[in-house]
Design a protein that fits this description.
By secondary structure, this protein is of the alpha/beta class. The protein has 2 domains: 273 residues, 3-Layer(aba) Sandwich (QueA-like); 97 residues, Thrombin, subunit H (Beta Barrel), CATH 2.40.10. Helix content is 22%, strand content 28%. The chain is globular, with a radius of gyration of 21 Å.
Length: 402
């Protein structure tokens, strides 16, 4: 496996602290929109996105829903223990199943103030849900936390909706507030399981989605449950050694059929793009007889694949494989790491917010539009764009003339 050498400093830039949005705008679609089209840059309002999408565009959305993944327990000594849900372990590693667990479940977690919580020690939290008193307990074994609750008729998702808080990113220097329960979700969020929002989608309103449809834009909804690894800075000396934590994907046969009919694909967010690229590489695996498990490794693009199809050929292989097994839903995991000089296989456009310096997401943007990412970000700073999750947006169309 031959890996490129990446100097992370080449993907750094100076981000003013006051450019980091701490709160959302009153109206979602009032955000600014930087349009990068065929190396030209213009500045717009997000509500006018449809005016800059090519004819016959299909937007690819990530319909994951952020769960209240941050739980706080108080010990009898007064010490507060923070439990941050990462990945379900039992009764299943499938987030959809784990959300529906009754009576008990276990999760891999990050634990704050863990020195005050001994392994095997049980914490207790008393809740009032629908007028019923419910006791939630948590017991730790290393980073594995076992939860039990006294109302077996309630699912785990019901428990955390009442016990947990929306996990705002660490660069928002504040606690989650009531408005975040609504604003840190996309209006089309549907499938519980993410611990971070697909923030490119936060700008869309129901009215805007209807307007786009009237303009001839079609929409497809995939699922990638975003994990806490999305906030993890690159600390390794060699960039390619940075760990990319696995995230669960769901794609339907109907999605694939619509993509095969589509003319121009635009991913809404880096997570949608990672889902699409992962789907491509699953097709590559199938065509090369390299396994039938939908699990995409971090450096899959640099492995040996004698057969290298285009995106359509890869989708056809996935569709054929699903149909032969009478599958209508495809679930898997991806660790895919997208960085220069990787060439995007699936989408010709990308809607995305502005990301942290020297991060995995900056590397993805650089892979998508090349060295012009620096000019795009410099323009955004000079024109007072708001950065990161609650910030403004961009439409990147590297191969489309203005």
């Amino acid at each position: 496996m031959s890996l490129p050498l990446i100097n992370l400093e080449d993907y750094n830039y100076s981000l003013p602290q006051d450019s980091i949005a701490q709160y959302p705008l009153t109206r979602r679609d009032d955000s600014k929109l930087l349009v990068y089209s065929d190396q030209q840059i213009r500045h717009e309002k997000f509500k006018n996105l449809g005016d800059y999408l090519p004819p016959n565009t299909t937007l690819i959305f990530n319909n994951t829903r952020v769960i209240p993944a941050r739980l706080y327990f108080r010990k009898s000594t007064g010490a507060v223990i923070e439990i941050f849900l990462l990945n379900p372990v039992a009764p299943s590693s499938d987030i959809n199943i784990a959300m529906q667990a009754t009576s008990c479940c276990s999760w891999s977690c990050m634990i704050g103030n863990r020195k005050r919580w001994g392994s095997g020690q049980t914490l207790e939290l008393v809740l009032s849900i629908g007028g019923t008193k419910v006791t939630l307990t948590a017991t730790r074994s290393d980073d594995l936390v076992s939860f039990r609750w006294s109302a077996p008729e309630l699912n785990f998702v019901d428990i955390i909706r009442n016990a947990g808080q929306i996990p705002l990113p660490p660069y928002m220097k504040r606690q989650a507030e009531q408005q975040d329960e609504h604003r840190y979700q996309t209006v089309y969020s549907k499938v519980n399981g993410a611990v971070a929002a697909p923030t490119a989608g936060l700008h869309f309103t129901d009215r805007m989605l209807n307007t786009l449809e009237s303009q001839g834009v079609t929409k497809e909804y995939l699922t990638l449950h975003i994990g806490a690894g999305t906030f993890q800075p690159i600390k390794t000396h060699t960039v390619t050694e940075h760990p990319m934590h696995g995230e669960q994907i769901e794609v339907t046969l109907a999605n694939i059929n619509k993509m095969l009919e589509a003319t121009f694909l635009v991913a809404v967010g880096t997570t949608s793009l990672r889902t699409m690229e992962s789907l491509y590489w699953f097709g590559v695996q199938l065509l090369n007889d390299q396994g039938e498990e939908f699990k995409i490794g971090k450096l899959v693009a640099y492995e040996n694949h004698p057969v290298k199809p285009n995106f359509r050929q890869s989708l056809l292989a996935v569709r054929s494989w699903m149909e032969s097994r009478q599958l209508t839903r495809l679930a898997g995991y991806t660790e895919i790491f997208i960085f220069p000089p990787y060439k995007i296989k699936s989408c010709s456009g990308l809607v995305t917010n502005f990301h942290l310096p020297a991060s995995t997401l900056i590397l993805l943007v650089a892979a998508f539009i090349g060295k012009d990412w620096k000019r795009v970000y410099q323009q955004a700073i000079e024109h007072n764009y708001r950065f990161l999750s609650y910030g403004d947006s961009s439409l990147l169309l590297p191969g489309i003339a203005s």
